[in-house]
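Let us begin with a simple case.
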Amino acid sequence: MPNSKTKLKVGMIGLGDVSPFHIQAIQNNPKAELVAVCDTDPSVASKAESVPFYTHYQEMIQAHELDVVHNCLPHHLHYPVTKECVEAGLHVLLEKPVAISYEEALLQKTLEDTYPQKICVCFQNRYNPTFLEMLHWLNKKETGTIQGIKGLVTWYREQDYYETKPWRKTRSEVGYGNIMSQSIHTLDLIQLLGGQISSVKASLSKLLDVESEVEDTVSASFQFETGTKGYLHATNANVSNSSVELEVITDTERLTIKDSTLYRTKSTGEKEVLAEDEELEGAKSYFGASHTYLIDSFYRAILEDTTDYITVEDALPSIELIEMMADSSKTVAEPKRIYK
């Protein structure tokens, strides 16, 4: 049944690096009002000026009649905090990953199946105009069958990235490294394009001179049940944050997303631009601008009581794929952190 409210009261838990994208999207959305924020570090309160600030999310939840919270906490807190919020009657917009293991992700799925509250997982790149146009083009008969999918995520993370927030290099708190913190968005798109994966062979390794329990680099090949082949290379050891590249090769042409632009290359070599993404300014511009689209879609789903958002079930394949990659690599073992 559609919600009788016209504006949602929103709280945010966690004011880390990704929080400015959420704050801006909330404050610019006519369907929502940011009424409270929370972080254990009081020095970050200025990220949401003139908004009540709390250092304990339970206190925030009790002090305000919230409709939805954004869970932007470190990975190991995604499940337990989401559980508390859902049990308190709140909808949750959950930053990726859905959980730090597939077993824990299934517990998130149990929450989704048990409670009426909605849990949306923040895979905002699904809303990029370039990716949506790629899907549209792949549905055309003349494009033919997908033969191969390639993903490249070559970014740069220096020592300070890990040292200022040690959870990023601790297996029990982060789960995995690059494949869970950086390249999971591209993995999500690859599995969305390719469908059910039949086999994976991957190498997870550490190229950075950082004392870390998790990988910073991965190379992987995928075999899909359709016969399509896939390849991913992702690293935090590049010299800069280069553009993410996603390429699909079909019977008749090549579709490439690079530098926020979707290109179509015909068999004749002729190239044309099909779509472009909105680009943000600043150091994190490579994150893209699609948080706004995802958040607005989720708010609309709450108000209209629809399922038009990225559910926990939608996000399960990304975690399953990560564990398949880790299992196939001799250098990384499976993390275990389960909350009952």
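The second case is a distinct protein. As before, the sequence precedes its structure tokens.
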Amino acid sequence: MLNSGRSQGGSGEWEQPFWQQRGWILSAGFLLVLLVLAVFTMLDGGGGRSPQASGDPDPNPTSSSGSHSGGGKEGADARPAGCRTDDSDQAKPTSVPKDFTWKADGTGLVPVSKTVGPLKYDGPVWSCFAHTPMGAVLAAHAITDHLSYQGWREVVDRQVVAGPGRDALIRSRTAEGDKPSSGSQDAGGYAGFTVLSYDKQKTTVMVVVRVPGKDAYGTASVTMRWDDGDWKLAPDADGTVYSGMSQVSGTKGFVTWGA
């Protein structure tokens, strides 16, 4: 996901891999680090939508068949079988889970937890997150990160809320095709987060990333919905995943992942 070799000027942009090009960044609306870099190098401080801009394709989204691996449902919460979690902590997180660790995904590292989620790994679909603010945070990282790699279509079909936003995301992502990416797992990465808003049906998470090769950080927000017993990504109607991209001077005020 991350690559420290990105050109900082505009002259060599189209010589870069497709996922580092402005056309890909603007049309796909994901790959958080690259979007932040786009703010620095191409949008030059442009505004964008507020972090609270939500991706509400449907106030009562319906779920497609096969939304989860694992089969049947259990309980009033409609959780997939085997996906029960401790959902008692409904407070916005002030620290990371004690058992959090990093798991490799493509060329990036994604935070995961054995207690908060994901509890299931089915190829590119990492699912079963706690029905808590922290569960939404981990789901936001895992789902958006997997949109960058082969297998993204299965992720979209199973972990993105059905509606116009998902349809638009599929169109833009399909147009780019699957091309190889390269990078270093420690070239940059997720530095922290905050939960901007939360209720049991909808959460807005702001993610903080360390910009590769620069002493700088960027932020962007993503909307998650509780749908069919798990957290799912809720893009805007035009397929945009991230909103409110901006540069910040550091991680003060955010929950940090640490080393």
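Residues 1-76, 180-187 have pLDDT under 50 and may be disordered. The first helix runs from residue 22 to 28.
Keep these points in mind for the review questions at the end of the chapter.
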